[in-house]
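Pipeline run #58 for the internal structure catalog. This entry was flagged by the ingest filter as a single-chain record with no existing model, so it goes straight to prediction. Upstream metadata was stripped on purpose; only the residue string is passed forward. Reviewer on rotation: M.T. Logging verbosity set to normal.
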Amino acid sequence: MKQFIIISISLLVFNSLFTLAQTIPEMQVVGKAEYLPNELVNNRIKDAKGNTCSKLVIETDLEGLSFNSPKKIVKINTSPGEIKLFLSPEEKTVEVYKTNYMPLIIDLNNHGVKLESGKAFKLSITKLTDINLVSVSIVTSPKDAVLYVDDKEMDGNQIHPLLYGEHKIVIQKDGYEVIYDTIDVTYKNTEFIYELKKSFVEEKQYSKIEEKKKVISPKMIFVKGGNFKIKNDDLSFNTVVINDFYIGQFEVTFKEYDFFCESTGRDEPSSSSWGRGKRPVINVTWNDASEYCRWLSDHLGKKCRLPSEVEWEYAAKGGQLSHNYEFSGSDDIGDVCWYWINNGKKTKEVGTREPNELDIFDMSGNVWEWCNDWYTEIFDPNKTQISADSQEFRVLRGGSWYDYNNACTVKNRNKAEPDHSDNDIGFRVIIEVN
């Protein structure tokens, strides 16, 4: 009888605690961090080691928040809807507290925050609910353009209930340039306006928009162009003007390439018995990659191709948001790269390391990536090498799972004959804007 009473009391206490845990509200980080290149950090604000602090701007609709961190927060500035934390650049986590809420422990690296002295980032924090939906306005011009959100067709120019965080946007209409974008929905960021540009490229017309939707195509990231300085071998600099373009967020995967093979009756390339799906496609020649781009152009009605060497390096370095890292996204190769030390002697699924400043993955390591250019011994960024005098080798960039550290830097160059394939060579696609 006593045992029964003890068990009953234990179960009652457990159920009470479980019910209490279910009723305690929680907080969440919305989306990924935003790097703030124009946000100044006072160099007189230093951590215990004398390093200039980093700034973390917390955007929130919650009141009464308090913060802590393992290395101690140096300074906090609070204003309505925004809290500025001055942190040691060595900080890895931030703890967030609110009365009657579960504590929130933020792993900065997991949310795209790589603190450096004098650099600033922004994160959004809100209440976690069972269904974190927010009303989002997406307006398109022309109004009859077809809108896809996360590959699902939606009614344009209406209010859409979306989850907080990132969503893939595709907007298309015959005779206009296709828009590819990734929006980050926060409690403040809920209105998005898109105006399509008339296409001056002769495009294939589709009687049914659904025909385009069926194509399995790479997820694209918009890269804002601008002036790009490249250091020459003699340590001088060349400046080249880069036009806007879209580039694959990931290397082309077996899933995407196998769809192309099925659609065109081509033989699928070998996976070297490592698996297909989300692994980067391998054992493809430059000619194979170019054929894929031509096929994708035909189905999307946009000019798709391999990146030029200078476009590849610009995107790998982070474009206008570049921190000038040695590898694409970090000076620590292990953060962003699958290479000879950590690879398990094969490729890995795309997007399983950290991205670079533009949210592009695997531009260091995993597989070498074909570029559009013919290879020349001296790299001149002011000239595309499409019609180089020596048309023997095509350019490869980025290093691979098989390579040492120095092969995986954003500066390293390699070459191969256009009909050569191997299990450490793949590619990614760009889409021209103009």
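catalog note: The chain has six helices and 25 strands.
catalog note: Confidence is low (pLDDT under 50) at residues 1-21, 200-213.
status: ready for reviewer M.T.
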